[in-house]
Amino acid sequence: LKPCCVERQPVFHLPLPASSPGWFEPPGTVIMGYSGGANAIADSIIASVGDNDDGPALSQNLGEGAGSMASLVQKALVNIVAPLLQRLGDLEETSALHKRELKVAHEKADSAAQRIGLHDRSISAIESDLIRTKSDLKRAHELICEASEHHSSLDNDHEITRAIANRLDSGHKSMGSLLADQQRLHEDLEGRCRQVQQGLSETNTAHISINDRLQELRTRLDGLNDRHLDLVKS
Questions:
Q1: Whose CB has fewer CB within 10 Å in the chain, the N or C terminal residue?
Q2: What is the pLDDT of residues 201-214, one digit of tens each?
Q3: H helix intervals, the chain
Q4: In this predicted model, what pLDDT tens digit does every residue of 69-90 receive, in sequence order?
Q5: Residue 55 contacts residue 67 (beta carbons within 8 Å)
Q6: Cα–Cα distance, 42 to 86 (Å, whole number)
Q7: φ, ψ dihedrals at 30, nearest 5°
């Protein structure tokens, strides 16, 4: 059998049994005016041979063995077409299975593409968040550095203040000792002042007695003067 007048879809070249032709047509291919897949091709071939075991009517010139020759030709054609039909049926089932698998694969691919798009948008949002977080961390690092420098300066000021406080504490202690000494000196001065006041009181008392004695002496001197004048007159 030679294919002729073929209006075909793309041909899939797959290995076939040794007894079958080296090519086949997918389902729906139109061969010699027939369409409908492997069953239609088989029907066309068997119909061309005949519907009974006697085979087609041959010319009388073919001899007595014409019927047996037609039967042999029919059987040979059936033996050739049977594996081809089986192979074509398997290929149709495989093609349908592949179509279903391709449809499922396309659906999965579309779903995966949608998920990938969602993931891309999520990654873009995460990337923008990371960039913003990076800038915030950089700013926080700068603030921490500034705070560290300020803390270092505060530590230096604290050390200076501590040294000043230590000096003030030592000065306070020395001032306390000086105040204690001054208090003792003040007490000594108060004792001396009391002694001086007591001496002044005694001196005032002695001065009063001396004034009394001087008054007595003045009175006696006046009396002696009067007596001397009396003596001079007499």
A1: C
A2: 888 888 888 988 88
A3: 38-49, 66-233
A4: 888 888 888 888 888 888 888 8
A5: yes
A6: 11
A7: -95, 115
